[in-house]
Write a structure and sequence with these properties.
Blueprint (H helix, E strand, L loop, with lengths): L7 E5 H7 L5 H8 L3 H14 L9 E3 L6 E6 L4 E9 L4 E7 L3 E7 L2 E4 L3 E5 L2 E7 L5 E5 L2 E5 L7 E12 L5 E6 L11 E7 L5 E8 L3 E6 L11 E5 L12 H5 L4 E4 L9 H7 L3 H25 L8 E4 L17 E4 L7 E6 L25
Parallel strand pairs: 1-2
Antiparallel strand pairs: 3-4, 4-5, 5-6, 6-9, 7-8, 8-11, 9-10, 10-12, 11-12, 12-13, 13-14, 14-15, 15-16, 16-17, 18-21, 19-20
């Protein structure tokens, strides 16, 4: 659904897939654990750590088909590539790799508009793989609701069951996210357990998804047998008009390398909105949507099929893990690898809004579009 930029924030959904990795050092800690209950507990801490970034009620930009976003943590050699792999239905895929783990997500969330609120149902395949033993973890995420999106003070709540499972040990994490009650009762709270393959509780987990995650060993009845250890705390957020974290702000920077032509940082509508020029942002957004329709028309006229550059669609013949959607409900996109290295630069290239080109048929577009501002 195309919406006015008034309701939007200056990032794309591909950047939101990268924002999941803000606390990726928790996966480094998971990889260090030899006890399977402790390992999956640290994976759960990482899974919860993404939720402070969901408190924003603004809508990110829908990526153009073939748009990408690439992120590096140069200090720790973590690399992520995300790509818009389908337009109807809209599907984004991302793959990240570090020394000890890989992270992959194929995401196509569904929404339900309820008048003054919007429910978001995560539909995805999220898989974390530990390189030391090929152990894979799968997720089933709870529902997030944006309240008062038309009238009143907008706020976010997440409620329901969060499941995380291991393909190797059979351990599972089951967390219950409490729905916000009257006068804010229970807001942000979650609790649950690490449960082994035999159904025995091993670790008790609790916290608030906007601030912290703590865990303690427990007996079979779920009673803690030791003190709780706080293993994750949300970093302080800066003053920002859209409520961005410092990490989210950094994702609009290209310091250290030159972004690829289809990178979200180059979107002119995103760039204009970031700098408070909403009128120009709306015009650029409309223009990009027109250009995407022109691409589709050329493709249909030529009888050609579009293929992602960095992912390959797999409709069947892949393993469905845990509570993931079945193969006939939702495809899988396999990581192909990166084509070509990023070009390093001594400083930050002024790429915002300039030379955005995810297109397959550049000759079908206005040449003015490719001029630098």
């Amino acid at each position: 659904m195309s919406v006015p930029v008034f309701f939007m924030e200056p990032v794309s959904t591909l950047q939101k897939l990268a924002e999941i990795l803000e606390y990726n050092e928790l996966l480094d800690m998971a990889a260090m654990q030899t006890d399977p209950a402790q390992r999956i507990a640290w994976v759960a801490a990482f899974a919860v750590s993404l939720y402070p970034a969901t408190e924003r009620c603004y809508k990110p930009f829908n990526p153009i088909l073939g748009e990408t976003f690439e992120w590096h943590d140069l200090s720790r050699d973590v690399h992520l590539m995300s790509e818009q792999v389908s337009h109807h239905p809209p599907i984004g895929a991302a793959f990240a790799s570090a020394k000890d783990w890989t992270y992959q997500i194929v995401s196509a969330p569904k929404t339900k508009f309820l008048g003054n609120s919007l429910e978001v149902y995560p539909v995805n395949r999220t898989r974390i793989t530990m390189k030391d033993n090929d152990e894979q973890f799968w997720f089933k995420s709870p529902t997030t609701t944006a309240h008062n999106i038309i009238v009143g003070f907008s706020w976010i709540d997440t409620s329901g069951t969060f499941e995380i499972g291991s393909t190797k040990s059979g351990h599972k994490v089951v967390l219950e996210f409490t729905a916000c009650g009257w006068l804010g009762a229970g807001r942000y709270e979650f609790s649950g357990y690490v449960i082994d393959a035999e159904g025995t509780k091993k670790v008790k987990i609790q916290g608030k998804w906007n601030s912290h995650f703590e865990m303690a060993p427990c007996d079979a009845a779920g009673e803690p047998t030791g003190p709780f250890a706080k293993v994750w705390s949300c970093r302080k957020k800066p003053e920002h008009p859209y409520g961005f974290t410092n990490f989210a702000v950094s994702l609009n920077s290209a310091e250290g390398y030159v972004p690829r032509p289809g990178d979200s940082r180059r979107r002119p509508d995103r760039h204009y909105l970031e700098h408070g020029e909403s009128g120009q942002a709306q015009g650029a957004k409309t223009f990009l949507e027109e250009m995407q329709r022109a691409e589709r028309k050329v493709r249909e006229e030529r009888g050609e099929k579009w293929e992602p550059k960095f992912f390959r669609k797999v409709d069947d013949g892949f393993d469905v893990l845990g509570s993931e959607p079945q193969a006939d409900e939702f495809p899988f996109y396999e990581w192909r690898g990166v084509e070509g290295a990023l070009v390093p630069t001594l400083g930050e290239e002024k790429c915002g809004g300039a030379k955005f080109s995810p297109w397959c048929y550049p000759d079908a577009h206005s040449p003015l579009y490719f001029e630098d501002k």
